[in-house]
Design a protein that fits this description.
Blueprint lengths: L15 E5 L2 E4 L4 E4 L2 H4 L8 H13 L11 H13 L8 E5 L2 H18 L7 E5 L8 H6 L3 H4 L10 E3 L4 H4 L6 H19 L4 E6 L16 H12 L2 E5 L23 E4 L11 E5 L1 H9 L14 H16 L2 H20 L5 E7 L2 E6 L15 H11 L2 E2 L1 E4 L8 E5 L7 H23 L1
Bound molecules: pyridoxal-5'-phosphate.
Length: 446
């Protein structure tokens, strides 16, 4: 009898007792290759002694002191590091460290509101975001997200948000559009929507530079993020980049915006920042937003108890050190290509794999009933969760989700293995996944 409120009350999950590189081991001795880092979290695998030593050493000194009273060396060093490494254009900004991606999104939204109030534009109250996106599970972050299925039960509690079309080429491009033309159309649609609602009432546009959990790693068309940045600048709207999943090296650059030659006014990162050793997220704020606060009230109005947590910041610093010292950004790029090649070989001609997409070690396959029409399977078949369960039987962790086609239907499986995986481990992922996919399809047809 368990007293943990598990996600599935009828089927409690196996108990994990040990982590070893890219592998987790359960109480029965079964080994799982963690090909999704849980949810794109465990970028260094599960046993990096440098990170655990850094956390332990900080805890020996002091674990926590409230940020309303004190600062601490790991928080100062981490903020400096995150700001200095941020894409050009961020300037001499600042970073605040909080406990989770959702908390970071809430802080980013409130800071956007504060920015406009500090500048004397109280009419800027609206947030615009994208259909199909995911920005966290607290009520504010959930409202910003555009995934119909995840929002539905809480809809009466959610603030009103303007959602514009998802930047998801495979699903939403017209037949005669290439990727760049699709990106330009999305920008034009956004501009038209802004004109409708009055751009002077909009506080921020929130995007995932590379989509994540809900759409399965769609990458932006070339130039698209720069175009968005330019559009936001022109209308005095802040651009918030949610890099909770795609940032911190996951796509082969420390920040995903960097690869696009773009930058945001506010960027949030989490997951890979703590790599699972500590729960931590960060809000990286550009110089221009900091200046408005500094020259206005001079106060950050939003606060959380665990801001600048010393042990968590020490862990994140050690993660960033490991990424740098071990040359892991380059490794993500080469391993990412290796994984892409394996997925193309296994699924490129598969009758039920409609799309293989992603960047770096952030890859997805989308499963369809019909490759020509892109028709998804009936959501009630629960194909994606079934693949997850069968992959576990194959000793593989992958991250499936439903709704990438229309918010309810559309099955994809996301892969986000540790940056530290050996070539042999990368090569292990695809055959195990292929067996799980084929078993799930056989069951669905039965
Ligand atoms: N933003 C994105 C893009 C995410 O993928 C997630 C979590 O999956 C979040 C925000 C929320 O992060 P957390 O679950 O740490 O609150």
């Amino acid at each position: 009898m368990t007293h943990v409120f598990h996600r599935d009350l009828r089927a409690p999950p196996p108990e994990i007792v040990h982590g070893e590189g890219a592998w987790l081991v359960d109480a029965r001795g079964r080994r799982y290759l963690d090909a999704c880092g849980g949810a794109a979290v465990s970028c260094l695998g599960h046993s990096d002694a440098r990170v655990t030593a850094a956390v332990a050493a900080q805890m020996d000194r002091v674990s926590f002191s409230h940020s309303g009273f004190f600062t601490n060396a790991p928080a100062e060093a981490l903020a400096r590091r995150l700001v200095e490494a941020a894409p050009a254009g961020t300037g001499a900004g600042r970073a605040m460290m909080v406990g989770s991606g959702s908390e970071a999104m809430e802080a980013a939204l409130k800071l956007a509101r504060q920015y406009h109030l500090e500048r004397g534009e109280p009419e800027r109250t609206r947030i615009v975001a994208r259909e199909g996106s995911y920005h966290g599970n607290t009520l504010g972050a959930l409202a910003v997200g555009g995934h119909a299925g995840r929002r539905a039960p809480y809809d009466p509690l959610l603030m009103q948000i303007g959602h514009v079309g998802a930047c998801h080429f495979y699903r939403f491009a017209h037949a005669d559009e290439d990727s760049e033309a699709f990106g330009r159309r999305r920008v034009a649609e956004l501009e038209a929507r802004l004109a409708e609602i009055d751009p002077d009432t909009v506080a921020a546009l929130v995007i995932e530079p590379v989509g994540g959990a809900t759409l399965g790693t769609p990458t932006p068309p070339a130039g698209h993020l720069r175009d968005l940045q330019e559009l936001c600048d022109r209308h005095g709207i802040l651009l918030i980049a949610d890099e909770v999943m795609c940032g911190m090296g996951r796509c082969g650059t420390l920040y995903a915006m960097e690869a696009e030659g773009a930058h945001a006014d506010i960027t949030i990162v989490a997951k890979g920042l703590g790599a699972g050793y500590q729960p931590i997220a960060a809000v990286i704020v550009s110089e221009r937003v900091v200046d408005a606060v500094e020259q206005g009230s001079g106060q950050l109005w939003n606060g959380h108890t665990y801001m600048s947590h010393a042990a968590a910041c020490a862990g994140a610093l050690a993660v960033l050190d490991a990424i740098e010292v071990d040359g892991l950004l380059a490794r993500v790029q080469t391993s990412g290509e290796r994984l892409r090649g394996a997925l193309e070989t296994a699924f490129g001609n598969h009758p039920h794999i409609g799309d293989i997409r992603g960047r770096g070690l952030f890859r997805s396959i989308e499963i369809v009933a019909d490759r020509t029409t892109k028709a998804p399977f009936d959501a009630k078949l629960g194909l994606a969760p079934r693949i997850k369960a069968l992959a576990l039987e194959e000793g593989l962790m992958c991250y499936p989700a439903q709704g990438c086609a229309d918010g309810t239907a559309g099955d994809h499986v996301l892969l986000a293995p540790p940056y530290t995986c050996s070539d042999a481990e990368i090569d292990e992922i695809t055959p195990r996944l292929a067996r799980a996919v084929d078993r799930a399809l056989t069951e669905a047809r039965a």
